[in-house]
């Protein structure tokens, strides 16, 4: 069956005006100007959106599918991501990670959950490894995980400048990046090293040392939490000027903001004012991770869970509060991550791309429908 989605005010992320989307199976077969005549046959389902805005499905490069945390003991473990919450969030491509806990949570758990979410209609990938080195893996090595397990596209989130990490030295980070990069080349994947950045004064310097003393480029690393502090944000802007990509975390708490975290939408606005290209900026939710609070002696105080829905919320803040164009904001919430992770069929709406998109509610910033791989997963059950 073919599906014709008519009269969409389309952002691809570029503004295209009023268009029709022709969907064949899981992909966009054609994007047609709304003035073009379309002969609708008996084998084509049709849906008229009557001018509603349509944007690409969001790409989230950091989601804790199976929960995270536990820094305060077993009573502080966060819950798994539910398929209902995932489908309602507007995120249609998710990349899972372990994080701090690679003891009671495992790569096998992570892949199992990724496949559960994929069975619900979403596109899911994952990072092998966790905060610590040597990395925990499914097959015995980072290289073989990336090469042989379809969902594994890189390694992460590896912690630097954080008291919970294994304090890796330049040699260890270089070897890890080299292994992931080579495996990615062999497998046709990104082989990215996704980096958790803590609040220590070293910031992103460990990554610069790798690039300085080896042939590994800065772009092999993909550091997140760059809006954790103003000082880290400034170092992140420098990192971007040097050729790297940086990622801002959309989940936050009043406590973290009070201690100096920069709201993600403000971080995007500051980066754009600093003339950092949207192709070097992305947003991630850190969904279902713990957002822990520590005192000055790094003693645990408490935590709250990250939320997948925060990515769409921050996208709206970028557009409605900071007056960032829809195109630039969408690049940060979808296209940049897709490019960094070598997923050219994601984060954009054109012929040949996966039919992942969000239909926005008329007149306000809210989700009316979510489509993933050519089928509605939220907001409507049938055409």
TrEMBL record:
Its EC number is 3.4.19.-. Its main location: cytoplasm. Its cofactor is Zn(2+). The active site is at 286 (proton acceptor). One of its GO terms (cellular component) is cytoplasm. The keyword Iron does not apply. Transmembrane segments: none annotated. Zn(2+) 1 binds at residues 64, 286. It is an enzyme of class 3 (hydrolase). It comes from the Bacteria. It is found in: Cytoplasm. Substrate binds at residues 69-71, 100, 131, 164, 228, 290. Keywords: Hydrolase, Metal-binding, Metalloprotease, Protease, Zinc. Belongs to the peptidase M38 family. Catalyzes the hydrolytic cleavage of a subset of L-isoaspartyl (L-beta-aspartyl) dipeptides. Used to degrade proteins damaged by L-isoaspartyl residues formation. This is Isoaspartyl dipeptidase. It comes from Vreelandella nigrificans.
